[in-house]
Design a protein that fits this description.
By secondary structure, the chain is an alpha+beta fold. Helix content is 31%, strand content 43%. The protein has a single domain, classed as Trna Endonuclease, Chain: A, domain 1, CATH 3.40.1350.
């Protein structure tokens, strides 16, 4: 497995732990719809929370959250719509980003709640 894949998996695991510690109920991880994947699907306070996780090493030139472009957001929304239909979800849905930066023994986790809105795309 390539180094960036290992880093991504580590970031997703850190994000799951963070969400659980903050009283989110994890419903699914790495749920796929065609070519699209939802990293983490959680529930909290009668909300379905779709979480995109982006992880980078500290020396990377881009902030992880900046990698969630409008195009990526559209793919996430399309996959979330399929998930909601398949699972017959009745909750409102929120889209979050968890941005993780890892440098040796230091990890920075930023949780951006309500990071984007489907109606704005």
């Amino acid at each position: 497995m390539a180094g960036h894949n290992d880093l991504g998996k580590k970031g997703e695991e850190l994000a799951r732990k963070y969400l659980i510690e903050n009283e989110y109920l994890i419903k699914d991880i790495n749920w796929r719809f065609k070519k699209n994947e939802l990293d983490i699907i959680a529930e909290k306070n009668n909300l379905l929370v779709v979480v995109e996780v982006k992880t980078r090493a500290k020396d990377y030139f881009e902030n992880p959250k900046d990698a969630v472009t409008r195009s990526k957001q559209k793919f996430i929304i399309k996959a979330a719509e399929a998930y909601i239909m398949e699972k017959d979800i009745k909750f409102e849905t929120r889209f979050d980003i968890i941005s993780i930066t890892i440098e040796k023994n230091n990890t920075d986790i930023e949780h951006i709640i309500d990071a984007f809105q489907p109606s704005l795309l």
